[in-house]
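I am still getting used to backbone structure tokens and would like to learn alongside you. Label the sequence line and the structure token line clearly, so we can match residues to local backbone shapes. Would you write everything just below, so we can both look at the same thing?
***
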Amino acid sequence: MSENHLIHMSEDKSDLGKVEISPEVIEIIAGIAASELDGVAMLRGNFASGVAERLGRKSSHGKGVKVDLGDDGVNIEVFLITNYGVSIPDVCHKVQENIVQTLKNMTAINVLSVDVHVVGVHFEDKNESEAPKKEQGI
């Protein structure tokens, strides 16, 4: 693994230069890929990532995603909250597939594993469920 913690893309035969991808970019891509699926309420970071986000040092798109660089590829951990009433195994499987497919399409990086940690369930607020009834005159 390199000292500057950048992922070096495979060298092609062109002499245009080299491509390096920062782990933060992978976190953002994986975070967006996970949060765009139905059944995922939100991604959940830890205390340190929340402080870094408030200080403007980290984007909120990468919150809840941890990337470990290896010699063979990357290992990704995702911490998320699901919506109430969805099949958690199905949502987690879709998250894994979407992250791997998105990273393969955008970066051609070898993803070794995507570990999904469900850390909570989001229940619908009482006000959200009553709002449509009030508008309909019920």
Notes: Strands lie at 7-8, 20-21, 40-43, 65-69, 74-83, 111-122. The chain has one domain: 17-136.
